[in-house]
Amino acid sequence: MYKINPDRANGKLLYTNFMITAIDIGGTKTLIAQFGDDGVMQQPVRFLTPQDPEEFLRELDARLSGLGSVTSIVVGVAGRASGGVVSGGLNLQQWEGFELVKRLQETFKCPVGIENDGNLAALAEINALSPAPKVGLYLTISTGIGSGLVVNGELAPLLSRHSYGHMVFKHEGSWRTWESFASGKAMAKSLGKLAGEITDPAEWNWIAEQIAVGLVAVIHPVAPEVIVFGGSVGGFLEHYRKPLEAILQERLSNPSLMPTLAAAHHPDKAVLYGCYHHATHRLAQ
User: Fold this and answer.
1) Dist CA 150 CA 160 (whole Å)
2) Where in the chain is the domain with CATH 3.30.420.40?
3) d(Cα 63, Cα 94) in Å, to the nearest integer?
4) pLDDT 10s digits, 123-166
């Protein structure tokens, strides 16, 4: 059973009898799960993310009414959520500028935290490793490419503000973001099939090449000890691990920079566990 240890950086934990509600809002689906003070996740609830944020609040209220008390909420969203306002990344036009935190506070009368979903997944997955690395990078390769950098168990503030998937490269004759050619969506368009449908080793080698373009750029300045892969393409790491490792070993200027590549422990629930980690860290301070 996966459990975050909130004592990790803050000494003895001095709270009990709380119920943390974790909400993972994606462009197509939303996941909700609750954690008690034992750190065990209750069975997640899933529903389609409404295009209208007001409809989302009504749907969320209806779902939470059947789950029990809510004493703290943490939300993970794709894109940015500066000042509690959603901007970019969700592929939901009506959500742009929506004051999500304020509205959740008004509706549920409890503390509400919000963070980029890649950062939250990174908190969960990097801290789940034993031993936890001093520097760990999480990548979710799915519709886009999300990322989170964890240093000594916590998000690196200056390096976790933007997704590495938005890095720009000269690729096949034009300037493009990494996720425009290496995300699961981009690869499915190029290959005409989803990752789960690929059987040709040459196609997995091609996927490794697209992923390596961005990884080489990230590894040199950041030097992660471990890179954890999640998402619809990241979950198939074992199919392209060897060609990806070979490319990295060839292209990295220093062999000592070669990180360990690992698959996510909980690829579908990493954001939810990250919400729990985020909430318990704040409560312990």
Assistant:
1) 8
2) 20-120+269-284, 129-263
3) 22
4) 999 999 988 899 999 999 988 888 999 999 888 877 767 789 98
CA dist., res. 248 & res. 104, Å (int): 44
Burial 197-214 (b: 16+ CB within 10 A, else e): ebeeeebbbbbbebbbbb
Structure tokens at 94: 């009506």
Query: Top-level CATH class of 20-120+269-284?
Result: alpha beta
pTM of the entire predicted model: 0.84
CATH of 129-263, one of 3.30.420.40, 2.60.40.10, 3.75.10.10, 3.30.750.24: 3.30.420.40
